[in-house]
Amino acid sequence: MSAMLQVEGISKYFGGLKAVDDCTLGVEQGSITALIGPNGSGKTTLFNVVTGFLKATKGRVLFEGREITNLPPHRIANLGIARTFQVSSLFPKLTVWENLLVAYPHQKGESLWAVFTGQGQIRKQEEEQIERAHRITDRIGLAHKIEEKAANLSAPEARMLEIGRQLMFSPRLVMLDEPSSGVNPAMLDVLANMIIELNKEGMTFFIIGHNLSFIMKLSHFMHVLHYSKLIASGTPQVVARDERVIEAYMGVRQ
Amino acid sequence: MSNIILFLSSVIALMGIYALLTLAVNLHYGYAGLLSFGIVGFAAVGAYTYAIVTRGAPVGEDVYLFYFNQPWWVGFLAAGVVTTLFAFIIGLPTLRVEGDYLLIVTFAFAEVIQDLLSNEGWLTNGTRGFINIHLPFRELIPGRNYTLILAFLIVVIVAVVYLIAQRLGTAPFGRTLRAIRDNEPAALAIGKSVFSFKMRVFLLGAAICGFAGAMYTWYMTLAMPSIFGMSVSFAAWIALIVGGQGNNKGAIVGTIVLLGVQQAFKFISLTPDMAPIISSIQLIMEGLVLIVILRFWPRGLLPEKSPRPPKPAITKEAI
Amino acid sequence: MQYAVYGLLMGCVLLLATVGFSMIRRVEGFLNFAHGQMLAVGAYSCYAFNNLLGWDIIPSAIAAVLVTAVIGYLVAYTVFFPLTGKPPLLIAIASTGASYVIQGLIEVFFGPNVKQYRFPPMRAIKIGNLSLAGPDQIAMVFAAAITVLFLHFLLTRTETGKAIRAMAANFNLARIRGINTPRLRVYIWLIASAMGGLAGVMIGLISRLAPFMGFEYITLIMIVAILGGLGSIYGAMVAALIIGLITQMSVMVIPPQYSQLVAFVLIIVVLLIRPQGIFKEA
Q1: What is the pLDDT of residue A250?
Q2: pTM for this one?
Q3: CB distance B310–A101 less than 8 Å?
Q4: At C171, which CATH number?
Q5: Structural domain ending residue among the three candidates A110, A137, A152
Q6: Number of domains in chain C
Q7: A70 and A85 part of one domain
Q8: pLDDT recorded at residue C263
Q9: CA distance A170 to A185
Q10: Beta-carbon separation of B190 and A97 below 8 A
Q11: Which residues contact B272 (CB under 8 A, 6 or more apart)?
Q12: Per-residue pLDDT tens for B31-84?
């Protein structure tokens, strides 16, 4: 079993507090895998450990067979893993346009030297990326707002922009932290369809979800965390009937 | 008539030097969000490096350890290089911490530099400092008209630095910096090596301060610890805030306004015995004016405008 | 041994000054450069009462502390309160403006020269061969200790104190819960400024007064604040004593002008190991 993303025995303790306890799970390539669990069960902490924002207390994380435990977050991102944050992942004072353009990898224009000696090359690269960005803004439905500052977008627009940015970044694994939060039910379908489309095009998704109906429709496979421990894994149908899962969620209304 | 021109040249020269400092603060804070309060420390390092590299052996009662007797442009370059080195050493531990910690450490750094320069009598002639600074092109233009040349030289350098800063700002480099400033975790999540960006901006800003320090010695014809106090760092920040943080034009405008006001005060100093009182009153007025401006015009005179996003060069064909 | 005593005294001074600074940082959220000026105001007020009005040192000191508390609050009221909600950097810069004003006023009223209290230096108490400290210095340590105890008592036992801590932890929540935040804010400024004033009075006793002393001490105050973990009151106390002792006792090994450098190197080292300072920002 070699999942694209393999979490092995990951634990994260904050002093005496066990945020994640001996968690082992996998995300298969090409799947949409969900990570669910009641509030405070450690989902975001797990995300943070996997993506390098927190150091693992114990355990390993492997991506495509290669160990990435405790690598700095930007290195992990450059290996092909993108992630969003529960609070906004956008750059509020940058425009929609800039939010997209900032995301393509290996920008020649980021080198001090090149800014003064390689103007031609930079311009060429930017023009290519501008083409891509155009296609993306059309796809996410924000073509009319490209000069708007990201801070002024509505919640669903912001979420779409976050997804659009993943496209610019072209990762292989996209980890979304509560993508449905703040999105009204009408837009949820649009969002879900976008994820499904992108998945068909080859992106693997690992999604933290709180809105169970949203996430169950969407995912091929689920892992359930409860009080820092993994209590169930399986397809949505199996997990929905798992007693421990039902118990964990009892009293938690969506 | 020529007296007025000379006086104006001298004012412009000083404004130019401070403008460089303010531009450096804008690089640090406006571009990268770094609370860099140790600007004057870098200037001091640059100034002293220039002085040490360009001077000859100690004479009279002077005591100092190093001297290299090089021409002015070697000293000038050395000022930038040595300052960058210092900035690198300071930056390594401090750029990893955030906000207020960085502020305090950079602030303390500048104070420590000033202390060291005052106390290390054996190294840098202590509080007496270095006089008779070697000035560029001085031999070519003896006499008072030199001030004009100096002002011209400084303005040219300011223009160059301004253009550099602008170019960096509109390049992807500047865009990524602003992203880092806006939301650092998100920048990390798209693979930006945040520390490297911060360090590069920090070094660039520090180098500019180092050059500015060297130029300050040209202007003052001396280098001594007492002219490199925290009020210089404050002045650069105040100029930036007043002019409009985040943009280079604002930096220059703010500097001109701030120094203009200060120089106007100097004019008012009527008699020698009034001088101390006037300087105290000047201090009070500066503080009051600053407080008032911050209260009523906190965005400054030229608030930051987002650089216009690159117009899509390939306009989308009608859908 | 002398150095240890002096270190303790310096530690007490820094403790009083920095705790106030940390309180303001915690509750108001900005680095108050003008806090250093509270030391100057305290010292010069004491001077005014002592030298100019001819009072004894103790009433002068007490009066000075009270005066400083009021002045500190007035500065906050006129400069900082109107800026509430603005970015902390802006308020910090405003505090440098306030510092200039205060220093300028001190220069105008008292002149630019160095001053001393009209208070005869007292003989140190000897134990055997060692001269420990003068009664005045012992009184200072005592005063500092009492202040600390009082503060601790206030913060942990009284309703006011608990309310202050709640405010420091989460301003909006505290307000919603009905805590009288405007009034508490006043108290905090009064207390912080008073402590700064007391520190200034003490500096006047062990050292001398100069108009720039506000800026002279702010660097050290900020260094102590980082070391103790920004915003942590108890951290500031511990850090103050540590820095006071280390900087003075290092004089035994390193020449005295380096004391600030020692403190600086110390924070660099600490930052490398533990970026939050000794105590976490509680």
Answers
A1: 67
A2: 0.87
A3: yes
A4: 1.10.3470
A5: A152
A6: 1
A7: yes
A8: 78
A9: 28
A10: no
A11: none
A12: 988 999 999 999 999 999 998 888 877 777 777 777 777 788 888 999 999 999
Residues A227, A116 share a domain = no
All residues of chain B having their beta carbon less than 8 Å from the beta carbon of residue A152 are none
Range of the domain at C89: 2-273
Q: Any idea what DSSP says for residue B290?
A: H
Residue C281 counted as domain residue? no
Residues A99 and A162 placed together within one structural domain of the fold: no
Which CATH number fits the domain that encloses residue A47? 3.40.50.300
The Cα A49–Cα A56 span in angstroms is 6
**Amino acid at position B106, single letter:** T
Residue A182's Cβ-side half-sphere holds a number of Cα atoms within 13 Å equal to 14
A226 shares a domain with A157: yes
Please tell me the least confidently modeled range out of A210-214, B228-232, B299-303, C130-134: C130-134
Nearest-CB residue to B185 (from A85, A95, A131): A85
Q: Which residues are bridge partners to A177 per DSSP?
A: A208
Q: Answer whether residue A107 is part of any domain.
A: yes
Question: What confidence tier does B315 reach under pLDDT thresholds 50, 70, 90?
Answer: very low
Domain presence at residue A42:
yes
Q: Domain for residue C142, yes or no?
A: yes
Full strand arrangement of the beta sheet holding A81-83: A81-83, A173-177, A204-208, A32-36, A221-226, A229-234
* pLDDT tens track for A182-229: 778 888 888 888 889 889 988 999 999 877 888 888 889 999 988 888
The bridge status of strand C125-127 relative to strand C130-133 is antiparallel
- What does the block give as tokens for C21? 């600074």
Residue A254 lies in a domain: no
Task: Tell me which residues of chain B have a C-beta less than 8 Å from any C-beta of chain C.
Answer: 35, 93-94, 96-97, 100-101, 103-105, 107-109, 111-112, 115-116, 118-119, 230, 234, 237-238, 241, 276-277, 279-284, 286-291, 294-295, 298
Report the complex ipTM.
0.88
Residues C160, C18 contacting (CB under 8 angstroms) = no
Pair C18, C12: CB distance under 8 Å: no
Q: pLDDT tens for residues A84-94? A: 988 888 999 89
- Which of A125, A152, A179 is the last residue in one of the domains? A152
In angstroms, the Cα distances linking A87 to A92, A122, B213, C178, C229 are 12, 32, 43, 29, 27
Q: Tens-of-pLDDT digits for all 282 residues of chain C?
A: 667 777 788 888 899 999 999 889 888 889 999 999 999 999 999 988 888 887 877 888 889 999 999 999 999 999 999 988 888 888 999 999 999 999 999 998 888 888 877 766 666 666 655 555 667 777 777 777 888 888 888 777 777 777 777 776 666 677 677 666 788 889 889 999 999 999 999 888 888 888 989 998 998 899 888 888 777 778 888 888 888 888 777 766 666 667 777 778 887 777 777 655 444 433
Distance between CA C165 and CA C171 in Å, rounded? 10
**Which domain does A220 fall in, by range?**
5-90+153-249
- Are B246 and B30 in contact, with CB atoms under 8 Å apart? yes
A43, part of any domain: yes
Is the Cβ–Cβ distance between B63 and B125 less than 8 Å? Answer: yes
Note whether A142 and A24 are same-domain residues: no
CB-CB under 8 Å, B193 with A130: no
Describe the crossing of helices C233-249 and C259-273 by its angle, rounded to 10 degrees.
130
Helix, strand, coil share of chain B (percent; to 5): 70, 0, 25
Is A105 found in the same domain as A31?
no
H or E element, residue A223: strand A221-226
A77 and A97, same structural domain? no
Are both A71 and A171 inside the same structural domain?
yes
